[in-house]
Amino acid sequence: MRRTVTVHKTGKTTHEVVYLLTDLTPLQASPRRLLDLNRGHWSIENGLHDVRDVSFGEDRSRLRAGSAPQIMAALRNLAITLIHRSRSSQILATAKWEGTIE
Questions:
Q1: Helix H segments across the chain?
Q2: d(C-alpha 70, C-alpha 14), whole Å
Q3: CA–CA separation, 92 and 7 (whole Å)
Q4: Crossing angle, helix 68-85 and helix 31-56, to 10 degrees?
Q5: How far is CA 43 from the centre of its chain?
Q6: pTM across the whole model
Q7: What is the pLDDT of residues 71-99, one digit of tens each?
């Protein structure tokens, strides 16, 4: 798939070729469907990373060895899920109020 990407903050435009792997049949894998699936994947991935990093400082974490990084990521995801289920729209404020983060 060829795509044009424009970074809104800088206005920089790049052109790139992206290779996708799928188990969809050719009839199921229309160009539009592949584009929608690709965009959907990254919107979820980027949204979750943003919440974990902004609210929980994940990028600043010094945990690097063993299974500690995966365990902490799972605990952060659990905290985010519980906050979402409590119907709170402000994850950072809720996490601070609950004492989840410093």
A1: 31-56, 68-85, 91-97
A2: 33
A3: 26
A4: 100
A5: 7
A6: 0.45
A7: 988 988 888 888 778 776 666 565 555 44
Cβ contacts of 22 within 8 Å, gap of 6 or more: 29, 34, 37
Place of tokens 């965009």: 39
- The contacts of residue 35 (CB under 8 Å, 6+ apart) are 1
12-45 burial, b if ≥16 CB within 10 A, otherwise e?
eeeeeeeeeeeeeeeeeeeeeebeeeeeeeeeee
CA dist 102 and 90 (Å) reads: 16
Listed by start position, the domains of the chain span 25-97
Cβ contacts of 56-60, under 8 Å, gap ≥ 24 = 56/95, 56/100, 56/101, 57/101
Q: Which two tokens stand for residue 69?
A: 């990084």
